[in-house]
Amino acid sequence: MFRSVRRMIYDLIEWRSQILSGTLPQDELKELKKKVTAKIDYGNRILDLDLVVRDEDGNILDPEQTSTISLFRAHEIASKQVEERLQEEKSQKQNIDINRQAKFAATPSFALFVNLKNVVCKIGEDAEVLMSLYDPLESKFISENYLVRWSSCGLPKDIDRLHNLRAVFTDLGSKDLKREKISFVCQIVRVGRMELRDNNTRKLTSGLRRPFGVAGKPGLH
Q: Which residues contact 172 (CB under 8 A, 6 or more apart)?
């Protein structure tokens, strides 16, 4: 209520300045005065104040010089106009809410923020840590992978990203939130030799990617 009245007061202040400027043509001045009186009557109505009856030019009717029937008819007309304005405002608000809900439902406006602190897993070689979202009921991943390359020393390969391993899964829409279950899955892929105990230099291999471990956090909802 306060915000509505404040907006109306700002409008009235601006319109008053235009009226006092004396630069408006007569037809525009007349229309502006009608807007002012309509805004005042509307504000009085939502604040449960008395309804002021006016003539066609927006001037307050003098009960000493106006008949009772004329006052009654003017009151009916003013009440009808204010009610129409209230219905119009209500309809506009409903349309805005509907459009907002439709846009909200159609736009993927949800996100999941992930901050990787550490990888506690004895690997012995370099590794790749992949994090993604998974639907266990449909048995499929519903997001891209967030990849972090981890060294055999227990630190990120890119040391500049230490304590700054963050990702945002932004491809979540209302359809994803309607899923019955969503899991956060972390996969670890070892990168190196075929066997950790392979010390024979003639058979030594490198750069092979082999699944090493997996972990999951069910029920993100």
A: 108, 110, 111, 112, 133, 143
What are the beta bridge partners of residue 176?
none
Contact 129/186 with Cβ under 8 angstroms?
Answer: yes
143-173: buried (b, 16+ CB within 10 Å) or exposed (e) per residue? beebebebeeeeebeeeeeeeebebebeebe
Which domains does the chain carry? 1-99 (1.20.1270), 110-190 (no CATH)
Write down the residue that tokens 């066997």 correspond to.
Answer: 195
CB-count burial class (<10 Å; 0-12, 13-18, 19+) for 41: buried
Tokens found for residue 117: 């602190």
DSSP state of 156: B
State the DSSP H helix or E strand holding residue 169, giving kind and residue range, or none if neither. Answer: strand 165-172
Q: Using one digit for the tens of pLDDT, what is the confidence trace for 168-221? A: 887 677 677 778 888 899 999 998 887 766 665 555 667 788 888 888 887 665
pTM higher than 0.85:
no
